[in-house]
Amino acid sequence: MKGGRMQDRVTVVTGAAGGFGRASAERALEEGGAVGLWDLDGARLERTATELAELGPVEPVVVDVGDSAAVDAAAARTRERLGPIDSLLNNAGYVVGTPPWEVSDAEWEKHFQVNADGAFWCVRACLPDMREHGYGKIVSIASQAALQGRPTTSPAYAASKGAILGMTVSLARNLGADGICVNAINPGFIRTEIHDQFSDPQIEGLKADIPLHRDGVKGKGLPLDIANAVLFLLSRESDYISGEFLNVNGGSRTG
């Protein structure tokens, strides 16, 4: 869209091949932006890039966000192909629904490597362009699980998403003078492919606390609900909002 809310902006979206990432990339393109699509799944990413290229400029990059050197290389490629990076959506995530007594050392470390370390590596790689221009937007997908206990959620996942919230407020304090807004979104239960490993009772448990019904159905949250929230926080409409957590959860957590 010419003259859209993301006109002349280059956004990096991690975990862009599906779910919240794809929906958010699509909204940014619809609003006139260019998008660096980062994902670990090369085949799926290529399909997504082909489909989204009809909406605007995209640059797919296969990258493991848990590898800091790979993230730096991905930022360099995006910058070379699309231009300076104006905004970042940290969406790539890892989750396994393991009970606390079964969480292994490797599983704990994997959650932090992707969800926390990876988010910071991406921020660090994209910051030079934002600081140089005196403007930028960073949005990270955290989780309602970081704010309240849920019986179906691994403590490794909750803790790694809690790290996202701590990083968000610290970055907001430190980057405000550079004109950079840093915020997080806490989705409630919105089913995406990442939940395919969950059992039906686990899924029903996640939906049970959601008071808002859509079309008469409880727990009918959509990736587009997250994408619209992301678009708001990436756009000029939120230029005086930083260090905040936006809950998108159908009313399952209020206040």
Write the layout of secondary structure elements.
Layout: E1 10-14, H1 19-30, E2 34-39, H2 42-52, E3 58-62, H3 68-82, E4 87-90, H4 105-133, E5 136-141, H5 155-175, E6 180-187, H6 200-207, E7 213-214, E8 217-218, H7 223-234, E9 245-248
Parallel strand pairs: 1-2, 1-4, 2-3, 4-5, 5-6, 6-9
Antiparallel strand pairs: 7-8
Would you kindly provide a written description of the structure presented here, covering whatever features stand out?
This protein has a single domain, classed as NAD(P)-binding Rossmann-like Domain (Rossmann fold, 3-Layer(aba) Sandwich). By secondary structure, the chain is α/β, with parallel strands linked by helices. Helix 2 links the parallel strand 2 and strand 3. The protein is built from 7 helices and 9 strands. The mean pLDDT is 92. 42% of the residues lie in helices and 16% in strands. It starts with 9 loop residues before the first strand and ends in a 7-residue tail after the last strand. It is globular, with a radius of gyration of 17 Å.
Structure summary:
This protein has 255 residues and is α/β, with parallel strands linked by helices. The protein is 42% helix and 16% strand. The model has no long low-confidence stretch (mean pLDDT 92).
Bulk shape: globular
Q: How many helical elements?
A: 7
**Can you give the helix content as a percent range?**
40-55%
Number of strands: 9
Strand content: 15-25%
Which fold does the CATH topology refer to? Rossmann fold
Derived from helix and strand composition plus strand pairing, the structural class reads alpha/beta
Number of domain units: 1
Rg, nearest Å: 17 Å
